[in-house]
Write a structure and sequence with these properties.
With about 350 residues, the chain is an alpha/beta fold. It has 8 helices and 13 strands. About 35% of the residues lie in helices and about 20% in strands. Strands 2-3-4-6-5-7-8-12-13 form a 9-stranded mixed sheet, with helices on both faces. Strands 1, 9, 10 and 11 form a 4-stranded mixed sheet that branches. Helix 4 (about 165-180) links the parallel strand 7 (about 155-165) and strand 8. The N and C termini lie far apart (about 60 Å). It comes from Polytomella parva.
Length: about 350
């Protein structure tokens, strides 16, 4: 009873803070999702250049979903290098990642593109739970699933690439440091590398009021989770006058939504659990760079307002020049998923793979 009273008092205090900040329209309490899209295990898509199979793999205490892309080749005894691939903040595998996987398959490279728990075809509630700790556990499950040769001999576990974009770019680096010599190469695209630096920039951009509003939403979500109440959601992307994890210009918002298909798995909505804001500043993939054994390719966007160029420059200085390759395009953060950038970026990645024996 005492615990319940304390929780209610905390909610009341946070509620007053929210009321003072006046942003009721900027938060959402829970949402219903369509889990019918989860029931597609075994689905196969066949083209002239690749076969895509939908599979499930164990992740912590539930199942995650992946699309396994296998090149179509007449050499039935051939084994393929495999790219382990996942998205960034609030993203799902159908949000543009398939374009890279399909392009890699046409070059003779397999891909294992998976959804984090609570996203896309993967199990887990509450939905849209962004968390570095949880995401890294999902990456471990995916990598271990492949290393155990569960997929069969057609996939060469001695030639594994970790591929992450945006928030997932940081995850790929952390996992690369953890798995060491078991990883052949690492690719990060517009990567998030330093939560501390990103938080400082966020506070500067939002101001005191905006930062307090974001913190209050995160605290309210955390407290409500202790009492099994509907979670609190904040927009993943919004304009500069909206409460959102990513505050974007009109061009950036257009580019963000351009990579999202009209129909999404799991009933996805562009909102994520507010508690993420309490965790992000402590997540610093940049501190793992010195532990990498594999070569690293960084593809960045010169007009990126989310992932600091200064942080990237600092990151590249932490590795020997022969271990890291940094390529930059004169575009914004979300432009890298579509043409005219897509083809040259894919070509750079494939050349990087070949350079390192894939």
């Amino acid at each position: 009873m005492l615990f319940l009273k304390i929780g209610l008092i905390l909610q009341f205090i946070i509620g007053l803070l929210l009321l003072k900040a006046s942003f009721d329209s900027d938060i959402k309490y829970g949402f219903d999702y369509d889990d019918s899209a989860l029931k597609n295990v075994g689905q196969v898509v066949t083209t002239d250049s690749f076969i895509r199979k939908t599979i499930s793999f164990p992740c912590v205490n539930m199942l995650c979903e992946a699309w396994l892309y296998t090149p179509v080749d007449q050499e039935n005894n051939k084994s393929y290098p495999i790219v382990v691939m996942a998205h960034g903040l609030g993203g799902q595998k159908e949000f543009g990642l398939y374009r890279f996987a399909e392009a890699f398959a046409r070059k003779g490279i397999a891909s294992f593109v998976f959804d984090y728990r609570s996203f896309g075809g993967s199990e887990g509630t509450p939905r849209n739970w962004v968390s570095p700790k949880r995401h890294l556990a999902d990456w471990r499950s995916a990598i271990d699933f492949i290393l155990l040769k569960t997929l069969g001999d057609k996939y060469d576990t001695n030639r594994i690439v970790l591929w992450g974009t945006s928030f997932g770019g940081g995850h790929a680096i952390v996992m690369g440091a953890e798995y060491g010599n078991q990883i052949t190469a690492i690719v990060t695209m517009v990567p998030h590398l330093d939560g501390r630096a990103a938080s400082r920039e966020s506070i500067h951009r939002r101001g005191v009021n905006g930062s307090v509003r974001m913190l209050a939403a995160g605290l309210l979500d955390l407290v409500r989770s202790l009492f099994n109440q509907d979670p609190v959601y904040v927009r993943l992307a919004g304009s500069h006058d909206q409460l959102a994890f990513m505050q974007l210009s009109s061009h950036e918002l257009d580019a963000y939504y351009a990579k999202i298909p009209p129909s999404t798995q799991g009933g996805w909505i562009p909102w994520a659990l507010a508690r993420f804001t309490l965790e992000t500043s402590f997540y610093r993939p940049i501190t793992y760079l010195g532990k990498l054994k594999a070569p690293l390719l960084i593809v960045s966007a010169a007009k990126d307002t989310l992932c600091s160029r200064e942080v990237l420059a600092n990151a590249t200085s932490l590795l020997p020049s022969e271990q890291v390759k940094w390529v930059e395009f004169p575009v914004s953060h979300f432009d890298v998923y579509l043409e005219p950038q897509l083809t040259p970026i894919v070509n750079i990645m494939v050349d990087f793979f070949k350079q390192h024996g894939l």
